[in-house]
Amino acid sequence: MSPDEQLELLKRFAPTLHFDALERWRPGLVDGYLEHSSVRNGGKHVLPGTPPAEAAMREHGHDYQAQLNPLGNDLDLDTYRRSTEMLAAYGHEQDLAGAGIAYGRVAPVGKAFFLQYWLFYPDNPCVLPPGRHDGDWELVQVTVERDGEGFTATQVTLAEHGKPATHPVDAGRRGEGPRVFVAVDSHACYFKQGAHPALLSDVCDPAGERGAKPALTLLPIAPDKRDWVHWSGRWGLDRGGGTRLAVSLHLKPTPWPLTLLNKAGDSPTSPAHQGKSWRSPRVFAGEGTVRKWSTVQLQRLAHLIGYATWPKTSPQVEVRPAPEGSGAPESTYLVEVGSAGHFLRRVAFVSIAFFEQRPDGTRRGLGLRKVLPGQAETFEIPHEGDVLWRAAGYNVLRQRGNPLPERSPDAQAQ
For helices 281-292 and 295-306, what crossing angle results, to 10°? Predict the structure, then answer.
């Protein structure tokens, strides 16, 4: 199959991504990330010649201890502030009105073709600090087979936090790509919207989506083994003890017990070093079928139990410009949050996502802020276009309630 035929196949069966209402990222190019990242050799020593990182990745391609640092500072920032700086550094290049970019790969195995869509996000904010990490690789895999002169999709495999889940394709959708729901902050992919229990609940509530979804931009992974695809290092700089121990033991990725030692999550390895998903896509899909009838069923049970505690009542949230004469910098907003719910359903904190609607119709994320019920806080949100916000409440179990409708800061909260 020629490269042009592979690209057409990837385009035909590309997934349609649905994003949560509070999501501030879209999968994007690695180029800008690599251009501004330095490479460290597992410690604080910066390898010469960086940034940009791609030259060092080429020269030190087999250095498993190497790590990218996409910011020019150390990890002295707490995880929340680091995500804020990551969005300021790399989010301006993205348009939330689009679907983003996927790096495509066609892996023929026997009579089947495994179409892989690798999605890169500069940051994995997550809900809790231990889940946050620099860089994030996600995967959607579609299995297609020849059907006469054409092709038909037979199954879809999603990497839910690196673990596969495989579903057969319904008869009516075998000629098109799957619908995929992207969980807020973790970017894990799921077959349905709503809450999906892992260690904690991932949520994708694409509230407010209208009209046809834009298509992913497809970039084929060149067969000449692009340097970043096969690089042996990590796509972020972690200071956690678990990651350091895993690196010293030549373990990739960091095993789950060791991640508990980290202050932040485990930055991923390159696609070609993510195990069976790259080396053996058929085996990866088969494991996803088995997992569907085991672990996934337990997760669904946990989901049902979770209905007893998730916050049903949305809190009252008001966002308005800081009062004149307060001395606050321009583009400062006052956020006030009311209480809601009782016992385990009580809202413990509210996340407010800020967005910017530009005059040219594009849209970008400005940041995420957290406010406790009964408190009022001010935040400086630099912007050029119109500011919009959405909010949702979380309980102490980190379950999230329904997101509030999108509003401008001048609108009175209900």
Answer: 50
Structure-token pair, residue 414:
């209900």
| Cα-Cα end-to-end distance for the chain | 57
- In 3D, which of 400, 334, 337 has the Cα closest to residue 373? 337
**Dihedral sign, Cα of residue 244, residue 250, residue 254, residue 255:** negative
| Rounded distance between C-alpha atoms, residue 299 and residue 201, angstroms | 10
- Would you tell me how many other CB atoms lie within 10 Å of the CB of residue 89? 17
How many Cβ atoms are within 10 Å of 370's Cβ, its own excluded?
14
Transcribe 131-200 into DSSP letters: G-EEEEEEEEEEEEEEETTEEEEEEEEEEETTEEEEEEPPGGGTTSPPEEEEPTTT--EESSSEEEESSS
Kindly report, residue by residue over 354-384, the tens digit of the pLDDT. Answer: 999 988 889 999 999 999 999 999 999 988 8
Q: What is the pLDDT of residues 53-70, one digit of tens each?
A: 887 777 766 777 788 889
Q: Which residues contact 76 (CB under 8 A, 6 or more apart)?
A: none
pLDDT of residue 200: 58
Q: Report how far apart, in Å, the C-alpha atoms of 72 and of each of 22, 40, 232, 282 are.
A: 27, 12, 22, 40
Q: What are phi and psi of 112, to 5 degrees?
A: -100, 155
Query: Which DSSP string corresponds to 56-93?
Result: HHHHTTT-TT-EEE-SSS-TTS-HHHHHHHHHHHHGGG
Q: Is the dihedral of CA 271, 273, 279, 280 positive or negative?
A: negative
Domain ranges of the chain: 3-300, 317-394
